[in-house]
Amino acid sequence: MELEPTLSPRFIVYIRNYLLDQSVDPAPILDECGIPSDSGEEYIYPVPLTRIAALCEAAARHTNNTCVGLNMAQQYHYESAPVIILAMLAAPSVEEGIKCLCRYDQYIDSGIETRFKPNQNPVEFNAGLIELTGAKVDQLNEYLLSFIVQILNTATRKVMPVSEVWFRHGSEQNRAQLEEHFQAPVKFGCDENRLLFDQAFLQERFVTSNNLLFEILIDALKTYFAVSPERQGFIEAVSRELMRAGSDSDSQTMEQIATGLALSPRTLRRRLSDEGYTFQEVKNIVKEQRARHYLSSTALSLSEIAFELGYSELSAFSRAFRSRVGETPQAYREKMKQLIRA
């Protein structure tokens, strides 16, 4: 079974904010794209890339604006920023901020692949969508690269020295507006989305830097998305594939994960054994990470979390969580609330 790439539900918030800024009611546009607009609850689950792409295109139609992706980046609401963007802004420099984004966004947005090549001049940053046949992603492409420039300009209070910008889509209708934003030539119909800029800019300090906040937020990201040092490498790659499955991760078979890693099930089993793990043990690691996330970042009840994680009873979830973490789910939730309020 091929898993559809997803994006963070924050993308719905970004598009909704843009529409509200234009005095456009987002409800009918969200409904048109199959995204509930009347739940009153925060979006917490990953959204298929195709649905976010369709929402962007619908926003462009309803506002009669072909530059929705660019304008969303320019008018970004920092009060709606997720933890990974807050961590990026708290980093000490451009280089550390981009590294933070590339390190953790792979877990949040399985539909986006980033690459960063800092040891060359000009530096190359790639942010590409894992596109599905028939998906129109022009607006999303333009948003991704426009946003990285916008946030770095904001964090440094300087104009990023971009030398060239590439986009995969072929439409050039926004060329003039994009070249004004990037202050650089823009190419279309390329093999990837690419941003080239002067290497010296990597050392620019962020005026938004906050070392203590950076450490706290990175620790929070590691708690959910990363694994401990002794599990890094191959185990982390397997964990990432399981993370991409979201609520279905516990039902994923070794064959499905092996396919995602371009391995045979036999090779996957052998390499896990070489690292001292079984496939089920890695599943348990991922389940623990998801449990920590639900407890610290959502309003789901303990029974709802137990159901999402595949437990038939709340008591079974509580026992498993306490065995792995050393405290009950409720105690962990209360502790995280106190840390956030502190």
Can you describe what's shown?
The chain has 342 residues and is an alpha+beta fold. It has two domains: 6-203, H-NOX domain (Alpha-Beta Complex), CATH 3.90.1520; 227-341, Arc Repressor Mutant, subunit A. The chain is 54% helix and 8% strand. The chain is built from 16 helices and seven strands. The protein has helices spanning 10-21, 27-32, 49-63, 68-74, 83-90, 94-108, 138-156, 175-182, 211-225, 234-244, 254-260, 265-274, 279-297, 302-308, 314-325, 329-341; strands spanning 6-7, 47-48, 112-117, 123-129, 162-166, 186-187, 194-197. A five-stranded mixed beta sheet has the order 3-4-7-5-6. A two-stranded antiparallel ribbon has the order 1-2. Helix 4 packs parallel to helix 7 (138-156) and helix 11 (254-260) packs across helix 12 (265-274). The protein is globular and about 60 Å long. The protein starts with 5 loop residues before the first strand and ends with a helix. Mean pLDDT is 86; it is low at 226-232.
Largest sheet: 5 strands, mixed
Low-confidence stretches: 226-232
Can you tell me the overall shape? globular
Q: What is the CATH T-level topology of the largest domain? A: H-NOX domain
CATH class of the largest domain: Alpha Beta
Could you estimate the helical fraction of the residues in percent? 40-55%
| CATH-level-4 superfamily name of the largest domain | H-NOX domain
Q: Strand order, main sheet: write it out.
A: 3-4-7-5-6
Number of domains: 2
Mean pLDDT: 86
Instruction: Supply the helix-strand structural class.
Output: alpha+beta
- Compute the separation of the termini in Å: 44 Å
* Integer-rounded radius of gyration: 21 Å
Provide a count of the helices: 16
Order of helices and strands: EHHEHHHHEEHEHEEHHHHHHHH
Q: Give the DSSP E fraction (strand runs of 2 or more residues).
A: 5-15%
Q: Which CATH-level-2 architecture of the largest domain?
A: Alpha-Beta Complex
How many beta-strand segments? 7
